[in-house]
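Data availability (excerpt). The following record was deposited with the supplementary files.
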Amino acid sequence: MTERIHANRALMSAAMRKIADVVLDDPSAPLELSITELADRAGTSPATVTRFCRQLGYPGYVQFRVGVATDSGRGDDSDAEGWRIEMGRTLDPDDSPDDVLRALLNAHVRSLRATADVLDLDAVTQVALRIAAADHLDIYGTGGSFAMADEMRTRLYRIGVNAHSWGDVHAGLASASIQGPQTTAIGISNSGRTRETIDMLARAQRSGAFTVAITSFPSSPLAQLADLSLLASVPEQYLHPADLSAKHSQLFVLDVLYLIVAQQDYSGAAAKIAASADAVAARRRPD
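Predicted structure:
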């Protein structure tokens, strides 16, 4: 929970930061205090506490307290703790398939809602305009983030953007080294600490490219490096670090970005999509 609060603190209002500081100083406070009592201790209002909870991806104070309780209650059984570390904090080894389904659904819905709450649409629009006008677009990522980069490359290429995706650091650095003022480069990393992605984006920036980070942590090295950063928020109680709720948040941000890029030349984008669909139509099996 503290990691999640630290990650979102920079995005909070001054009043919400007071609440964050109270919880960081005393992580058990939400378990002991009512919403009114926590607001009084922080010198704010109950409505501000509710906004604070929503900033962290919880619908309200009750759900936030459950999250705090779950997080603080870990560790009594070594086998169960091993399961939670490896498979996720919201699941237990004896959970039923229905429990697993509901936990997954909750994690994914929360990650998308949290992302929608913190996504800076002005920044997204700035990035979209840069992409639409760019002579060349590089998208960097490794592991699961490369899958997101390659998906974005495919979508943008179909509407006429000269987009390229790189997961191999050597190939990515080579491409980054030939960027310039009329190019854009995007680095995707949930943690914002993936060395290869940071190195590729940094090299593109030194070459003159406009750089963008897509990450869950605004204070991460990748976000601090980039000219603009877009947040793909993952609730603190997400599952395994490679959990698809993190990828779905990234894809959500990329989808919004893609659609705003397409809006810049809607008729042209629609024509290109129709042409590419027609080109592969004969490859589809008849009903």
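Summary of structural features: Residues 74-89, 236-242 have pLDDT under 50 and may be disordered.
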